[in-house]
Specification:
This protein is an all-alpha fold. About 75% of the residues lie in helices and about 0% in strands. It is a multi-pass membrane protein.
């Protein structure tokens, strides 16, 4: 009887200890408080590292010259000074430059995504001669630095007469040699390998050809891969300045290129407007120009975020 009483007294203590342990560190069903604090602290820290430059640019872009020189004003400006954006808009020639940037970015990104999907589907579904060798060569194009191929490409494009033309971006993308095309081919290759072959076999028995199977079955099921590839390709083509400056020259310009020569363009514009006098640029105008140059990317991100998440949710497909 005494032993049973001692056991009954110890049981509540053990249960309390287990409850406290589960509350702090979690269990198989629920995450503990300490674990949640660690996860949220880590996420907040990582998020701050990425958001700090945006917050800094957004804050300084609305500051007047007096706010920039005032040591008491660090984050919040005394007023929302929009003239910085008006000046940056004129310096960047924003409307026409944005149109050209979308022109030389969207078309190669679309072509690269479409061609990469065809190549990835071919590697995933067909037994080609020297398939592994060809696939290895495709991956090797990603390992080779693009700077090594820039001069030969320039000479080749110059012979073709497409320097200063969008075809210098569009032609490599149409042949699977666009900017980082090997990554997108690998994405589609892995994704199409995950798709059940039984669906394609059933369509083939019903009389569908390979192209119809690709368009009617493979493409709708690979929407997440298309979204991911297009977004990455769009951002990489948008941010590319070295190849754009080399292949486009003075014929075409983009927002990142205009941002590189922002200070010189500002001084030139003010020298013309003020009769040769030189006016130095301040940090508020520079930050406003930077915000305008990345604003289209932010808009694209917020528009496509929902589709991206829905595409990832729809990608829970088991292969056979």
């Amino acid at each position: 009887m005494k032993k049973n009483a001692v056991v009954n007294q110890r049981m509540p203590k053990k249960q309390k200890q287990q409850r406290i342990k589960h509350l702090l560190f979690g269990s198989n069903v629920k995450t503990g408080i300490i674990t949640q604090l660690f996860i949220y602290s880590l996420l907040i820290g990582i998020g701050f590292v990425y958001l700090y430059p945006m917050i800094h640019m957004g804050s300084y872009s609305f500051m007047t010259l007096e706010d920039l020189l005032n040591p008491l004003i660090t984050w919040l400006p005394s007023q929302f000074y929009l003239e910085n954006y008006e000046t940056a808009y004129r310096v960047l020639n924003f409307s026409s430059t944005l149109g050209v940037t979308l022109y030389v970015t969207v078309l190669p990104a679309l072509a690269q995504t479409l061609v990469a999907s065809l190549i990835g589907y071919g590697f995933a579904r067909f037994d080609l001669p020297f398939k592994r060798t060809l696939f290895g060569l495709v991956l090797a194009t990603f390992v080779i630095p693009p700077q090594v191929l820039m001069i030969p490409r320039y000479v080749f494009f110059n012979d073709l007469g497409i320097i200063g033309n969008i075809q210098s971006f569009l032609l490599p993308a149409a042949f699977g040699q666009g900017l980082n095309s090997a990554i997108f081919i690998l994405i589609f290759y892995q994704f199409f390998r995950m798709l059940p072959k039984s669906l394609e076999e059933a369509a083939y028995l019903d009389g569908a050809g390979y192209y119809k199977i690709f368009i009617r079955i493979a493409v709708p099921m690979a929407i997440p891969a298309f979204i991911i590839s297009f977004l990455f390709s769009f951002v990489w083509y948008w941010n590319e300045t070295t190849m754009a400056a080399t292949f486009f020259g003075n014929a075409l310009t983009t927002l990142p290129l205009e941002l590189q020569r922002f200070n010189a363009s500002y001084e030139q514009m003010n020298a013309q407007n003020l009769g040769g006098s030189n006016v130095n640029i301040n940090e508020g105008i520079s930050m406003a120009g930077t915000m305008l140059s990345i604003l289209p990317l932010l808009v694209v991100y917020f528009i496509t975020q929902r589709w991206f998440v829905e595409g990832v949710d729809r990608s829970g497909i088991t292969g056979e």
